[in-house]
Amino acid sequence: MTATASFDVPPSRLRRSDAVRLGAAGLRARPSRIVLSALGIAIGIAAMIAVVGISTSSRAALDSELERLGTNLLRVEASERGETIRPLPADAALRVERLTGVTGAAGVAELPGTVYRSPLTPRGETNALVVRTADESLAGLLEASVDSGRWHDRATDGLGTVVLGSLAAERLGAPAVGTRVFVGDLPVTVVGSLRPLELAPDLDTGVFVDGTTARDELGWDGVPDAVFERSSDELVRDVRERVPGTVAPDMPSSVSVSRPSDALAAKDAADSAFTGLLVGLSGVALLVGGVGVANTMVITVLERRREIGLRRALGATRAHVRSQFLVEALLLSLVGGVVGIVLGTAVVAAVALGNGWAFTVPWTAYVAGLGATLAIGGVAGVFPAVRAARTSPTVALTA
Questions:
Q1: Could you tell me whether strands 84-85 and 186-194 are parallel, antiparallel, or unpaired per DSSP bridges?
Q2: Are both 139 and 229 inside the same structural domain?
Q3: Residues 6 or more apart from 235 whose CB is under 8 A from it?
């Protein structure tokens, strides 16, 4: 009897580390094509990171600004009723200040007249400046910073002095403290200028005349156009509800109360909506990049048919070939994603530095970026990988 020898041939297998090395080797063999394909993914990820990071940094800066300025400032004005506006009472600021929880109130009024740098300035060149007067406590309530000089106080009251808003100072040529400007034909002396007022930007064009001069020389009747007030944070809503009835008991509806910080919050909401649109456009760029990866991988499969046939003839299974090309697509997308994250982070850092913001990019943006990269690579690589796996060894070797 003849003994027959039998051998147990172990099944062919492809380790994960080998699959990664094969995929990396495939990328290194065609560097120029890989760079162009990865560029589409990189642009999409960079745009996504940049949009999210800039929006987050801007929002963080706004939150910090609101925390500094406070959200407990209210603005009280006369509201329109039909075609008429009932003015506030002359003691409106005093009435508001007496409310429980109110820490301070100050009135501001607009006066007739225009401001000129020189009496020789043509009367048509008004620079859209507004003559105003205000209580001495206004600057403190608005957290106003003095750029030069000082704000009105008892020492300057009645001396024919003005304080310039930031835009007013700019349009008048930034006159130095002690310089004379003209309210109509009335010469007044500049005693200070303000930095921009974040919570009352409409006052930046104001030229603030001291109260006594406003009464004696410009005919102000002491009636404010608006009253600003600060209250304790926990009582803002309660104070807001009680102000109209306090200022005008007989007609509360003639008084409107707004919170200036709400305008900044609304701007932030609008920016968030715009950010969502830009993130969507970034997604389109990612989709285009994914199409580029798929196209590259299809061409790669066609060019490497002999390699595929040889590997199949040497024992590689369809699953091995499929894994090789799928890993290659994933690595290609990953390279583009990492480059995009670096570029996007650099853009956010540059914008934040240029605007004086704190650099802020949520970690979820990076996770989402890498996740989207791998998802795009996986989807883009499925069809080429399956096509490669279905290639017959005989047909591939004889092609």
A1: unpaired
A2: yes
A3: 100, 101
Give one word for 158, left, alpha or beta, with left for phi > 0 and alpha for psi -120 to 50.
left
Radius of gyration of the chain measured on its C-alpha atoms? 35
| Domain final position from 236, 260, 284 | 260
| Distances from the Cα of 390 to the Cα of 211, 321, 399, angstroms | 90, 9, 15
The string over 216-254, giving b where at least 16 C-beta atoms fall within 10 Å of a residue's C-beta and e elsewhere, is ebbebeeebbbbbbbbeeebbeebbebbbebbbeeebeb
Which of 232, 260, 288 is a domain's end point? Answer: 260
What pLDDT shows up at residue 73?
A: 83
Residue 344 within any structural domain of the chain: yes
**Nearest CA to 306 among 391, 374, 189?**
391
Single-letter code of the amino acid located at 9? V
Q: Tell me the pTM.
A: 0.60
The pLDDT-based confidence of 179 (bands split at 50, 70, 90) is very high
